[in-house]
Amino acid sequence: MSAPNDTRTEAAQARAARSSVTLDAGRRSAVRRRWLIEVGWKYLVAAVILFYAIFPLVYVLSASFNPGGSLAASNALFSVFDVGNYAALGGTRYWTWYGNTLQVGIAAAVGAVLMGAAAAYAFSRFRFRGRRMGLTALLIIQMFPQALAFVAIFLMLLALGEVFPALGLNSKIALICVYLGGALGVNTFLMYGFFNTIPMELDESAKIDGATHAQIFWTIIMPLVTPILAVVALLAFIASFGDYIISKIVLVSEDNWTLAVGMFQWVSNQLSSNWGLFAAGAILAAIPVLALFLGLQRYIIGGLTAGSVKG
């Protein structure tokens, strides 16, 4: 009598085990479906965006190693690995243009930080007649891109060059001044919101201790607004580093050209364009911008967002 009972017990246990396995499989399937609906599609979108962003960079890197000088021969990525294009840069004025670009970019970044910080400090801390009108004027002016004024810039520098040659055409100093003037409005507004987040009590306590406005600005305010200073420096450097229109108008001689102006001459003629040389130059030109971005990365998010919460 015990054998049939044992058989029925084992059969019931087997059915229970199969049902638990089926239940676990169904639960796992439901979990997977829920993960795909809530999270999985985000990974798919991120992969598409990542491919869209990286593929042009990989293609340019592949073209820089192709000695043919044509993009049509670069469709097969890294089919040829030749550093001849990088070596050929030494036979051009590339490194002269590289030095000019670094000079202009660094000077524009430092000038933009100093001028923007001074203007933002004045608008944030002082109350004077025309303050609101000045802020409104800056807001309106920055809506128009600097390229719209290239005719006026050309005529102005042409006239200034007759009196002060250092501020006329074909002058890197004049180009830096044009960049600083064009970026002053947006930099002032960007810093103005950040300066407003610094409590006025710090200024008042420093004044009680006998500090002047210059001491307050350099020793108290500037260390506290380091994130926005880094952001403005990065944006000013990138804008001047990659600008073509204004640089082409101001700089006339080949020795004073920047990278954007000089490298464009390599590909401007369809019959004699050398895309391999251009790609190699573009890869090397990206190094300073990438190094600066990585060096200031910890300040970028805070500098771009902190000024938007107050002011």
Structure keywords:
mainly alpha; 2 domains; MetI-like fold; 311 residues; flat
Q: Name the structural class.
A: mainly alpha
Low-confidence stretches: 307-311
Number of helices: 13
How many domains, as an integer? 2
CATH superfamily of the largest domain: MetI-like
Instruction: Give the N-terminus to C-terminus distance in angstroms.
Output: 89 Å
Describe the largest sheet.
none
Q: Proportion of β residues?
A: under 5%
What is the average of the pLDDT values?
82
Shape: flat
Kindly summarize this structure in a few lines:
This protein is an all-alpha fold and 311 residues long.
Task: Present the secondary structure layout.
Layout: H1 2-64, H2 84-88, H3 94-125, H4 131-141, H5 150-163, H6 172-195, H7 200-208, H8 213-224, H9 226-242, H10 245-250, H11 259-267, H12 275-295, H13 297-305
Description:
This protein is mostly helical. It has 2 domains: 2-50; 92-308, MetI-like fold (Orthogonal Bundle). It contains 13 helices and no strands. Helix 6 (172-195) runs antiparallel to helix 9 (226-242) and helix 11 (259-267) runs antiparallel to helix 12.
